[in-house]
Amino acid sequence: MSWTDERVELLKKMWGEGQSASQIAKELGGVTRNAVIGKVHRLGLSNRAGTAAGGAAAAPKAEAKPAPAAEPAPKPQPKAEAKPKPAPEPKAEPEPEKPKAEVRPAPLPPRKQIIPAGQPLPPQPSANEISPEALAKVNEVEKKAKKLTLMELTERTCKWPVGDPATDDFWFCGLPVQQGKPYCEAHVGVAFQPMSARRDRRR
DNA sequence: CCCTGATTCGC
DNA sequence: GCGAATCAGG
Where is the composition biased (Basic and acidic residues) (predicted)? Predict the structure, then answer.
C-alpha cells in the first residue's frame, strides 16, 4: 500500500478527529500503526494536543498556543459535517479496584443481590437510575457473552457476573474489558455511575 | 499486558 | 519517503 492522496486525507481527517494511530491504521488497512505515526510525523502534523505520549490525550483541546507566524490554517470545514462525538466516558469515580477472585467479585451485581439483612446497608452507590440505554446494551451483550467460569477469568475479561451464583445458570460476561476497567464497555456503563443527580432525601 | 505516540535508522 | 523496531509513558 502507498500513501495516495485519498489515504493521506483520511489520515489527516482521522488524526484531526483525535483518532488513535492504530484506529487509523485499521481503517486504512494495509498499514500498521507505526506506518501511520511515521506518516503523521513526516506530514508534520504530529502533536494535536498537549501531551501526546501515553495512552492519554485523545480529546481535541482548545488551542492555547500563541500561534506564531508559521502555522497552517486551522481547518475551515466548508461542508457541515455533523460528527457528534462527545466524551464517551465521563470519568468514573474512584473505584475499589481488584476485587480479586472471590465468590462474588462484582461490586454491583446486575440482578438482585441477596443481601444478608441485619446491618444497615453499606453505601451502595445508585443501584438504580441507570440509563435505559445502558441497560438495553447490557441485555444485548449478555447474549454474546462468553459465559466464562470464575477460573477462566483473566486480567482482561469482563468480570461482570450474570445469573445466580447458587445455580448452574451463572457465569461471567468474559468479553474484552475496557482498558483499565474490570468490565467490558457495556458493563462499565452500568457499573460506573458518573454521578446521579442526587435525589434529595425528600420525605 | 494492554494501549498510546515518538524516534531511530536501514532500506 | 517509508515503516519495523524500539523507546517512553499511562
Answer: 78-103
* Among A1-15, A31-45, A159-173, A179-193, the least confident range: A179-193
Find the nucleotide nearest A33 (Cα to C1′).
C3
- Spatial CB neighbours of A84, under 8 Å, sequence gap ≥ 6: none
A36-71 pLDDT per residue, tens? 999 999 998 876 654 333 434 333 333 333 333 333
> In chain A, where does DSSP find H-type helix?
5-16, 21-28, 33-42, 132-144, 185-191
Could you tell me which residues are beta bridge partners of residue A157? A176
Nearest residue, CA→C1' of C7 = A53
Instruction: Measure the N-to-C terminal CA separation of chain A; round to a whole number of Å.
Output: 67
Q: Report the predicted TM-score, pTM, of the whole model to 2 decimal places.
A: 0.42
Q: Taking every pair of C-alpha atoms in chain A, what is the biggest distance, in angstroms?
A: 71
Q: Find out whether A184 and A178 touch, Cβ atoms under 8 Å.
A: yes
Residues in CB range of A157: below 8 A, 6 or more apart: A146, A148, A172, A173, A174, A175, A176, A177
Residues with CB under 7 A from strand C: A 1-3, 31-32, 34-35, 37-39, 42, 53-56, 179
